[in-house]
Amino acid sequence: MDSSIILEKLNSLNKDTLMETLNIRYTEVGEDYLVATMPVDSRVHQPMGLLHGGATVALAESVGSAASHYLIDPSQGEVRGIEISANHLRSIREGTVKATAKLIHKGRTILFWEIRVEDEKDRLISVCKLTCMILKRN
Question: Rounded to whole angstroms, how far apart are CA atoms 8 and 26?
Fold first, then answer.
């Protein structure tokens, strides 16, 4: 399937969700990765005016979960995030962050992702790990 069609479909699923609230947009897709962006502004700041770690994790889980959904046949199963961890390495006050979810492991029931969150100068902001479970439809 054409990557622009995949991105259009993924972005259309954001309506009336947290992803829409945070203005998360899927921008690039490949066989084993997905990229999303999120603007850093007051909506995602913590009280000190920095990017909130929770917003960073929401971005990471959004891109990893969307990538997981893209990898499975939705008529056969659904995906649920079951664990996420994050190491925040650098702070940012404004601009845009980019999250790249790269598939590390694809099993019959488990998908494991590494999500690197970087700023506009490609400096590493956070590294997250996400485990998703594939649930079979009845």
Answer: 8
pLDDT at 70 over 90: no
Answer yes or no: are the C-beta atoms of 129 and 59 closer than 8 Å: no
- Provide the pLDDT for residue 73: 86
Which helix H or strand E contains 103, and what residues bound it?
Answer: strand 95-106
- Spatial separation of the C-alpha atoms in residues 94 and 42, rounded to whole Å: 9
What pLDDT was estimated at residue 101? 98
Question: Does the active-site annotation cover 61?
Answer: yes
Spell out the residues 6+ positions from residue 127 whose beta carbon is closer than 8 angstroms to its own: 86, 87, 89, 114, 115, 116, 117
Q: How far apart (Å, rounded) are the C-alpha atoms in residues 32 and 89?
A: 25
List 136's β-bridge partners, or say none: 77
For 44, which DSSP code?
A: G
Nearest to 68 by CA among 52, 84, 55: 84
Q: Pick the catalytic residue from 8, 20, 28, 61.
A: 61
Tell me, yes or no, if the pTM score tops 0.90. yes
Cα–Cα distance between 90 and 80 in angstroms, integer? 29
